[in-house]
Description:
disordered N terminus; mainly alpha
Amino acid sequence: MLNDLNANNIDSPCTKKCKLEDNNICQGCFRTDEEIKIWNESPWHIKKAILRNAFNRKFIKLNSKKVINEHALSVKQPKIE
């Protein structure tokens, strides 16, 4: 029971760089607007799920940028003469 009480004090992942994208996902913490709204009232197991989802969104976004950048570097540029 004590572990449940301590686990409920999970810090917010807010980075104070709030800016919602078109898909309602914050560019700072990668939570949805709904996840941000419910954070303070959520039990620890919901907070852990929100953190996991936010981490996955961030991972996907960062890796998609990496793939795009790697592809851009691999495309042969025409020679300018």
